[in-house]
Every structure is written in C-alpha cells, then in structure tokens.
C-alpha cells in the first residue's frame, strides 16, 4: 500500500512538470492546431500608392480623395494616421484632434498602406494656408473672402438670392474621346483664365462639363462631371483659384453642343469644359 502511494506521488509530480497545452501556446507555435485547425496567417500591410488630390467626401473613418484627372480614391484613416500641415504635426501631435482637420475641399497628399483591397492612410499632409481656407469655408466666416473689401462682403451676403450674372469671359478646354485628363495646353489656358479673372472685381467661376454624342446618356453624364472635376481641381491646386469663388460645378453631358456631332471635327469641339467668368449684375461695376 505504501509502495502504491509512492508511485502515485511520482506520477503526479511528473504530470505537473509537463507544459500545459493552451490556445495561447498553440498560436505561438504554428505546428500546434486549435480544435484540429491551424490558425490562418494574416499578411502584414504593404506600401500602397501615394494619392494627391482634394478631399471630396468624408464618412466615418473613410475619406474620398479626388485627383486632378477626376478619379476618386477611398482611403481609411485611424488613430495611427499622422496628420501634418506645412508647419509640422497638426494639433501638436494630438492624433484624435488631427483627424478632425480632414475637411472637405482640403488639398492633401496621402501616403497609404495596402491591406487586401483596403487602402489605409499612414500619413496625410497639407499646406497650412489650404487648411485655413477650407476651415473658413466650413465655418462660413467672413474671412473666407480674402480681399475683405466691401464688394466681396456684399457678394457673400447676397449670393443666396442672386441668380443673374453678367458673363465677362468664357474659356473652353478640350478633351480626348472618353477622357477627363487635361492636356498641357488646357492647363496653360486654365491658369491664364484664373489670372485674368483675378483682375476682375467680384469675379466668380462657373465650370460646366460637356461631351460629344458618343456613348449612353448615363455614361456621358458621369464623364462630363469628371471633366468638370478635373478642371476645378487644377484651377484650385495649380492656378490657386480660391474655392469660395467657385459656383457649384455641373455636368451637362451632350447638351448645348458648340458644333454638329455628325463630324469628327464637330465632336472634338463638343468634348469640352467651359470656364465662365461671372459677375453678379447686382455687383457689376462695384
């Protein structure tokens, strides 16, 4: 009986000396399975593309960035996303407050990580002046009109009920079939137009996109809007035209053709965006 008790004690001691199998150990050792299955491997994120454009929409933890060619990219941001302005880390390093700086209309450069089909923003940078402008537009403050003259203040106060304008100038820029990318000539013409408009008191811009008759109505509507978006982005980013001096853009598909769509030459004239320089009739001459 005493011999049996000794064997029992030795067996118990040996059992306690063995390592215990646990889910945690199983996860550390890929050769160990949990419930008969090996844990799936999760690939780490890889470097994604750099994206440059204007924040055109924001919902929850997602941003839509519209590039100069009119294409849209959706990226996800989180607490690890670095938000930086031209003067350094925005908000003194407070990442939670930093994400609040990602305002619609803000030109940004986004460095991304690719995780499956999701793009995650690792860093978002923008110029301090651009943030100031976007913030002013967001808050609707009087400082949104940089000139701070009586005429621009009057313009801001009366824009809600003014629906008639004098057209001071119209510039057309043209596109290849099915494309929304700007040519070098179009870029030069747009900045020349912005410079000219800058010298016009109380001037606003109205940008309207058009197509030729090739393609369905839905396709042409989308294409005309992309063309208008390309022009607006370039005017704001490269030509430094202020967003608050831009009327709501529109796409008109194949409406209002400049020429007949029966010839290649006519179609080429209709694949355009019209940039109209307007002054309210109530303010013209102020």
Walk me through the structure:
The protein has 286 residues and is α+β, with helices and mostly antiparallel strands. The chain has 2 domains: 46-133, Copper binding periplasmic protein CusF (OB fold (Dihydrolipoamide Acetyltransferase, E2P)); 163-280, OmpA-like domain (60s Ribosomal Protein L30, Chain: A). It has 8 helices and 12 strands. It has helices spanning 2-17, 23-28, 95-98, 128-139, 150-158, 184-198, 217-237, 264-270, and strands at 46-47, 51-59, 62-66, 72-76, 82-85, 88-89, 107-115, 118-126, 165-174, 204-209, 250-251, 272-280. The strands form 2 sheets. Strands 1, 2, 3, 4, 5, 6, 7 and 8 form an 8-stranded mixed sheet that branches. Strand 5 (82-85) and strand 6 form a beta hairpin. The N and C termini lie far apart (115 Å).
User: Mind telling me the CATH class of the largest domain?
Assistant: Alpha Beta
Number of strands: 12
Mean pLDDT: 75
Kindly report the name of the CATH homologous superfamily of the largest domain.
OmpA-like domain
Helix share bin: 25-40%
Output the structural class. alpha+beta
Strand content: 25-35%
Q: In CATH terms, what is the architecture of the largest domain?
A: 2-Layer Sandwich
What kind of sheet is the major sheet?
Answer: 8 strands, mixed
CATH topology term of the largest domain: 60s Ribosomal Protein L30, Chain: A
Low-confidence stretches: 1-32, 87-97, 139-162
């Amino acid at each position: 009986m005493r011999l049996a008790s000794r064997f029992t004690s030795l067996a118990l001691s040996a059992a306690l000396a063995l390592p215990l199998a646990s889910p945690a150990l199983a996860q550390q050792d890929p050769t160990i399975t949990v419930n008969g299955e090996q844990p799936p491997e999760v690939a780490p994120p890889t470097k994604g593309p750099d994206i440059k454009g204007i924040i055109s929409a924001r919902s929850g933890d997602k941003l839509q960035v519209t590039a100069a060619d009119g294409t849209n990219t959706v990226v996800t941001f989180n607490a690890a996303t670095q938000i930086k302005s031209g003067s350094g880390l925005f908000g003194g390093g407070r990442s939670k407050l930093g994400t609040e700086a990602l305002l619609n209309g803000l030109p940004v450069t986004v460095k991304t990580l690719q995780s499956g089909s999701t793009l995650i923003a690792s860093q978002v940078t923008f110029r301090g002046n651009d943030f100031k402008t976007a913030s002013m537009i967001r808050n609707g403050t009087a400082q949104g009109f940089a000139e701070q003259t009586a005429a621009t203040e009057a313009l801001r106060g009366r824009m809600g009920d003014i629906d008639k304008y004098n057209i001071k100038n119209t510039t057309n820029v043209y596109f290849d079939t099915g494309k929304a990318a700007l040519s070098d000539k179009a870029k030069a013409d747009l900045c020349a137009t912005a410079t000219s408009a800058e010298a016009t008191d109380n001037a606003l811009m109205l940008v309207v996109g058009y197509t030729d008759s090739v393609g369905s109505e839905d396709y042409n509507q989308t294409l005309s809007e992309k063309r208008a978006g390309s022009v607006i982005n370039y005017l704001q980013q490269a030509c430094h035209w202020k967003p608050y001096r831009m009327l709501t853009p529109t796409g008109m598909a194949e409406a209002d053709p400049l020429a007949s769509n029966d010839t290649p030459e006519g179609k080429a004239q209709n694949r355009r965006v019209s940039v109209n320089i307007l002054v309210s009739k109530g303010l013209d001459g102020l």
